[in-house]
Design brief:
By secondary structure, the protein is an all-alpha fold. It contains 10 helices and no strands. It folds into 2 domains: 56 residues, Homeodomain-like (Arc Repressor Mutant, subunit A); 158 residues, Tetracycline Repressor, domain 2 (Orthogonal Bundle), CATH 1.10.357. This is Transcriptional regulator, TetR family.
Length: 234
Amino acid sequence: MPNNEADHPRRPRRSQEARSAETRGKLIAATLDVLLAEGYHALTTQRICDVAGVSRGAMLHHFPSKVSLVVTAIDHLLTTATEEIRDQAKRVHGGEISLEAFLDYLWREQFSGRLFYLTLEHVTLARTHDEIRAPLIPVVKRFHAALDETWTEVFPTTSLAPGGIATVLNLTLCLMRGMGLQTVLRPNDDAYYQSLLSAWKALLPGVVEGRFPLSPSALSPLSPVPSPTPRSAR
């Protein structure tokens, strides 16, 4: 008789660490999917477990509360976005794509889709939930610090004063956040958003090259994000 075990060798068992990482990944993905599609009001731990296909006991083993899961999921979201943005910035630095193409990428992939709307959810949530706001502040600070570093890679040399590149970065991000916010109540108006993006594309090189100088006060280092104040103390 044929040796079935020889013909079909057993697949090696995955380690506990690998199974644990898979479970965490499912829970994080489910949290972001529910948050995006249904909002925080529908984000119960049972709903997350159902979407992830994970038992409640397994969820509690990895995340003791819904808040810890939400914060971890947002941290994962922003870390992934940072890596993707850094990859595109390296392409600009290497001459593979233009600055204009990089701005198109930021708008298309980061500020008019999944990342932005999830950001909108957690920012709105943090405004009224101190238990989420406090742990999210260092997460967002790391995200902005990574973006500052990435932006410097796009413009390794510039005539701007120290701190100027960070200011220009935040001008760009604030513009795109505002545009993204408008898409909620002004959808399907691509011509409008492209006109704003085109205007910034025309202005940005002149700002970076010093042809449109910003005031010295505008180029000072950015102030650190203050520590959260509990609402009970306000």
